[in-house]
Design a protein that fits this description.
The chain is α/β, with parallel strands linked by helices. It is built from 11 helices and 9 strands. The chain binds D-glutamic acid (DGL).
């Protein structure tokens, strides 16, 4: 059994820079905690890989976090969560592992003021997330209350990963994939991939001012709850540090991670 300590860091993991959208919420809620953010940009995108490959990549990152004495691991990636969370929790039973799932539940509970007419909810995520059992079960539990429309957006991961939020190229890509929902509007959008909050403004420009839902805040709250339960919250009153690491050797995504951490979104 590992000896987890309150002063040890929280590891936050993503296939690339997307998990920064979750790291921001964690740091906002738990400013005294040290966080280690690791983006596996060398192997991104995960969403187009096989489930077994994503499980393998995620597992080896968790082993690395344990070497770094992490007291909790946040899979700040819906794709890695779908592929690996269950298996990792079975393997590391005493480690706090927080996952991300598309925020379909709050989107279904939202009051759209449609007088009983089911809302049309667009769920944007990776191909892997949308084909896995975890999401299919979630969607089927909600189907009697809302119309759930799945939209894979692999190009969007690549664009965010290369720092192209707000670009002409991103606008063109989104115009193409969102065209059907301009004609037949949706009532809300679930950003079911942690890269996508960095494209929220671009999506909004096309779909208009509908409510957006993502899992970042909920994951941060769940992390706080679990740390508290295990007496692992750092209560020393110090200011938490953030360490950024990335598997890509180019340095581009490392710089982008730091930029996105403080960007306006
Ligand atoms: N950020 C990831 C997610 O939340 C996956 C992006 C990718 O690598 O395909 O699903």
């Amino acid at each position: 059994m590992e000896d987890y300590k309150a002063e040890n860091p929280i590891a936050v993991f993503d296939s690339g820079v997307g998990g920064i959208s979750v790291l921001r919420e964690i740091h906002r809620l738990l400013p005294g905690e040290d966080c280690l953010f690791f983006g596996d940009s060398k192997n991104a995108p995960y969403g187009e890989k096989s489930t077994d490959k994503v499980l393998e990549l995620t597992s080896s990152c968790v082993d690395y976090f344990l070497e770094k004495k992490a007291k909790a691991v946040v899979l700040a990636c819906n794709t890695a969560t779908s592929a690996a969370a269950k298996k990792l929790r079975e393997k590391y039973q005493d480690l706090i592992i927080i996952g991300l799932e598309p925020a379909v539940k709050p989107a279904v509970l939202w009051d759209y003021k449609k007088g009983g007419v089911p809302a049309r909810i667009l769920v944007m995520a990776t191909e892997l997330t949308l084909r896995e059992k975890k999401f299919l079960n979630l969607a089927s539990r909600c189907r009697d209350k809302a119309e759930i429309i799945s939209l894979p957006a692999p190009g969007l991961v690549r664009l965010v990963e290369s720092g192209k939020s707000g670009s002409e190229e991103m606008a063109e890509y989104l115009e193409e994939i969102l065209a059907p929902y301009k004609e037949n509007p949706v009532d809300s959008v679930v950003l079911g991939c942690t890269h996508f909050p960095f494209a929220r403004a671009d999506i909004k420009r096309i779909l208009g001012d509908v409510p957006f839902f993502d899992g970042a805040e909920g994951a941060a709250r769940q992390l706080k709850r679990r740390l508290k339960e295990e007496n692992l919250l750092d209560l020393s009153g110090k200011k938490g540090t953030i360490t950024f690491e990335n598997s890509s050797e180019s340095g581009v995504q490392l710089a982008l991670s730091k930029e996105l951490f403080s960007a306006e979104i």
